[in-house]
Amino acid sequence: MIRSCALLVLVYCFHHTIIIGQHIETIAGNGVNASQDGPIETASLANPFGVVRGPDGDLWFCEYDGHKVRKITLDGKIVTIVGTGKAGYVGDGSQASKAQLNKPHEIRFDQQGILFIADMSNHAVRKVDLTSGVITTVAGTGIGGFSGDGGPAIAAQLKDPHSIQFGPNGDLYIADVGNHRIRRIDIGTGIISTFAGNGSQGATPDGGSFTEVPLLTPRTIDFDAEGHMWVALKKANQIFRLDLENGTLHHVAGTGELGFDGNGGNARLATLSGPKGLAIAPNGDVFIADTESHSIRRIDAKTGTIDVVAGTGSQFSGSDGDPLQCGLGRPHGVFVDTDGSILIGDSENHKIRVLRWH
């Protein structure tokens, strides 16, 4: 059952501003760590990570513990589309429902409606043609490592790819976390190359050339309306914006220290806690799944300030209603929906929630 409780007043509490009418709702999951299909009221989820709105209008998500890609249909059912539920790396060239995934982290759709999966522990990116239902690998050999730049992505090695996103020209970008790089696949040729990061694990300098600087665990990526890439560095606890026109990257949020301070102030002076999800709204606001602070935070595009929009800073399975009193459990997925609401993969609470403004 969808549960909601709208806030009717503007409250300022502990340096967090609540927007009039802001509320959070559980739209799927009963809190039990199980991957069971069925009506949305009774179906269970197994550690949902990435969540997106599909071209069919359904809400799609991947499960880290369930080793599946599933969706919530418009008529209120949860069904499995990819994966048997057993961790593995089999099934290429056959029906996706009979294939095995291994801890998928994120999913995206291309302009043709083909589903792409960051199949993390298989060190691969896979795709599913939803017309035929067939799954294939588009990048990675299944063995973690770093190789293959300048050649076919299918023959290259990745290491723990966590995040994928399509750029303005349709190329596929991969957050190749274990290699401390962002890789790019030319959509026309299938050739893979390193787009950003030199593979080292040092501090990232502000204003440097993004092809030459260290990127310490680039965990999640997204693009804004102007075509700039945003990347969250999990272990560095920072967020950078990559200017694709001049080849430089710029520090946007996080001091580099692990923490949950600075809300209501300059995002550059705030502390983050292992950010693992990013979503850019059409107006430029940046939503962060700040996983280890169990919260969703927002950078205001106009002011550069950061604040909390959901979560208390502590791990808990909170009740629906006031989003700042609703405890989250290591959220990984965050997505700006077509109506402006924020979809959240509340991972260790085994729920998908939605944050709305009215």
Strand fraction: 35-45%
Reported for the largest beta sheet, the result is: 5 strands, antiparallel
**Number of domains as seen in the coordinates:** 1
Mean pLDDT: 94
Helix content: under 10%
Rg estimate, integer Å = 19 Å
- How does the overall form come out from the CA principal axes? globular
Q: How many extended strands? A: 27
What would the CATH topology be? Answer: Neuraminidase
| Biggest sheet, spatial arrangement of strands | 4-8-7-6-5
Sum this structure up briefly.
With 358 residues, this protein is mostly beta strands. It contains no helices and 27 strands. Mean pLDDT is 94; it is low at 1-20.
Core attributes:
single chain, mainly beta, Neuraminidase, five-stranded antiparallel sheet, four-stranded antiparallel sheet, globular, disordered N terminus
Walk me through this protein's architecture.
- The protein is globular.
- With 358 residues, it is an all-beta fold.
- It has one domain (11-17, 84-339): TolB, C-terminal domain (Neuraminidase, 6 Propeller).
- The chain contains no helices and 27 strands.
- A 5-stranded antiparallel β-sheet has the order 4-8-7-6-5, with no helix packed on it. A 4-stranded antiparallel β-sheet has the order 3-27-26-25, with no helix packed on it. It has a 4-stranded antiparallel β-sheet with strand order 9-10-11-12, with no helix packed on it.
- Helices cover 0% and strands 39% of the residues.
